[in-house]
Write a structure and sequence with these properties.
Elements lengths: L2 H15 L1 H11 L6 H16 L6 H11 L7 H15 L17 H6 L3 H8 L21 H8 L2 H10 L6 H10 L2 H8 L6 H10 L2 H11 L5 H6 L3 H11 L2 H8 L5 H9 L14 H7 L3 H9 L14 H7 L3 H9 L14 H7 L3 H9 L14 H7 L3 H9 L14 H7 L3 H9 L14 H7 L3 H9 L14 H7 L3 H9 L10 H17 L3
Helix pairs in contact: 1-15, 2-3, 3-5, 4-5, 8-9, 8-10, 10-11, 10-12, 12-13, 16-17, 16-18, 18-19, 18-20, 20-21, 20-22, 22-23, 22-24, 24-25, 24-26, 26-27, 26-28, 28-29, 28-30, 30-31, 31-32
């Protein structure tokens, strides 16, 4: 009997061993109830199988649940209820403040969510809806059409109406989202016009529908993404991949994301290399650090994992832990000799990663163990620059208490105040100036923070900097002022403010922009008479 002939039995064996884990994750990702009794039952499964078993830290489960809302937002209140139960039991604070008004009564989005065809028809009569951009849905810079939202929610009646009356065209995203919505009729209709892609597989994995995963793999030869399996806790899809490929080394690497040391040990027993690297030169230790899998990290280190192994970008496991606020894992890695000031290809240290991701607790840990706060990356940015760029006031304050230079320049001559101004972080700008930031400092192009704020139409910060003495007509090395750049970007609010406060109009401004400015100037002059 060949090795491939044995694999299905191995799959069944592993599926049986981890049945409780798989069932718990399926209950969470396939949640379709608002009944408190049923939710309490699901929480009991989560607590027993994931928390009490030490597979997950309660904080990480809350994070995963909050992230899950965008893929199953009809049941956002149910997910928040589960988070509240975890929060109360383990004294963990969490914040979730997304705008849910789009799903309130009498909105077309509520009608789609509930597949209320009659209400949907009434709301579409005589009105054209723009693409929806909302953090309640998976990130999409363009926005979602009504047909795409029908696919997401599995609203088959509304879907059919749009197709029949408005001839709404099916695009790739419709098919992709249908694997989240899970309605067979919608999916089959989309498949008539579009071919599945890797995003279909990603959403099938997120939905924890093993039939969808198998369908895409068997019918369309789309590979199961092991990283997605680990990221969205889909062990069953992971085992299907193992069943079909017998890819011991890659399965070993990604098995660490489930925080089940016994599963990692299984693949090692099958001959996996503890320091094996995938195509991106990522090791098992890197992935364990991403998801704060402390127990697995301990297991890997005890079996000879190289703690300072780097990926193709020169990043170690400590970089990964820092960028994902995996404090416990970072602490463990440091205690086992991880190089705390190791730099990647961009000369970024773990501290840079921690601050860039807003991981204050991990940043404090790194600094307490000797991380250099003055290290500069390839662009000359220090940890303090990054704190300002991320609007992390608490981290900035902490770094200042340790002696960080508030007026330090990067390679382009930018200070922390320049970064705060360009991103319209008014409170950060206030903090910096109150602690000694020089408002007159210029970058390599001769631009002050005030000019940067105007360039980005950061109106609140423009007003604040002006009130603290910023020179409104200062020119950069190219002879341009804040008004020039505001006009160039058609920044209405900033242009109005600058004109009202003495900005000069000169020949530097091209004719088209001059007309734009003069129109505003006339408006403001008229308004000033009353």
């Amino acid at each position: 009997m060949s090795e491939q002939d044995i694999l299905p039995n191995k799959y069944s064996e592993l599926r049986g061993i981890y049945k409780s884990y798989i069932d718990t994750c399926n209950a969470l990702y396939q949640l379709k109830t608002e009944n408190e009794e049923e939710l309490n039952s699901i929480y009991k499964m989560i607590k027993t199988e994931l928390i009490d078993s030490k597979k997950y830290h309660p904080r990480n489960i809350i994070y995963d649940i909050l992230k899950l809302i965008e893929y199953n937002n009809r049941y956002k209140k149910s997910y928040l209820y589960l988070c509240k139960l975890i929060s109360d039991d383990f004294n963990i604070k969490f914040i979730w403040n997304l705008n849910v008004s789009i799903h309130e009564n009498d909105t077309i989005y509520r009608a789609i969510m509930e597949n209320d065809k009659e209400r949907f028809i009434a709301l579409t009569e005589g009105y054209s809806y723009p693409l929806l951009r909302s953090s309640l849905y998976p990130y999409n810079s363009i926005g979602y059409s009504l047909l795409e939202l029908c696919c997401y929610h599995g609203a088959v009646d509304c879907f059919k109406f749009l197709r029949t009356k408005y001839k709404s065209e099916i695009y790739n995203r419709c098919l992709e989202l249908s694997f989240l919505g899970g309605n067979p009729e919608i999916m089959n209709e989309c498949l008539k016009y579009r071919k599945p892609d890797k995003w279909c597989m990603t959403y099938a994995i997120i939905s924890h529908n093993i039939d969808f995963v198998a369908f895409l793999r068997n019918e369309y030869k789309i590979e199961i993404d092991l990283y997605d399996c680990g990221l969205f806790n889909n062990l069953e899809a992971f085992l299907v991949y193992f069943d079909q490929t017998n890819d011991i080394d890659n399965c070993f690497i990604y098995s660490t994301m489930f925080n089940i040391p016994a599963l990692c040990e299984y693949f090692l027993s099958q001959g996996a290399n503890i320091n094996y690297k995938n195509q991106e030169e990522i090791t098992a230790l890197h992935l364990a650090a991403i998801k704060n899998r402390k127990e697995v990290v301990e297991f890997l280190l005890s079996h000879g994992a190289n703690i300072n192994e780097i990926n193709e970008d020169g990043q170690t496991a400590l970089h990964y832990a820092a960028s994902n606020n995996s404090k416990e894992t970072a602490e463990l890695l440091i205690s086992h000799g991880a190089n705390i000031n190791e730099m990647d290809e961009d000369r970024k240290t773990a501290l840079h990663f921690a601050i860039s991701s807003g991981s204050k607790v991990t940043a404090e840990l790194l600094i307490s163990h000797g991380a250099d706060i003055n290290k500069k990356d390839r662009d000359g940015k220090t940890a303090f620059h990054m704190a300002a760029d991320q609007n992390s006031k608490a981290i900035a304050e902490f770094l200042l208490s340790l002696g960080a230079n508030i007026n330090e320049k990067d390679k382009r001559g930018l200070t922390a105040l320049h970064y705060a101004a360009s991103r319209n972080y008014k409170e950060m700008a206030e903090f910096l100036i109150s602690h000694g930031a020089n408002i007159k400092t210029i970058d390599e192009d001769g631009r002050t923070a005030f000019i940067h704020a105007a360039m980005q139409n950061s109106i609140e910060t423009v007003e604040f900097l002006f009130s603290h003495g910023a020179h409104i007509n200062r020119k950069d090395h190219y002879g341009s002022t804040a008004l020039h750049y505001a006009a160039l970007g058609y920044a209405d609010e900033t242009v109005k403010f600058l004109l009202l406060h003495g900005a000069h109009i000169d020949e530097k401004i091209v004719e088209e922009k001059l007309l734009f400015i003069l129109q505003h100037f006339k408006i403001e002059k008229k308004q000033s008479k009353f």
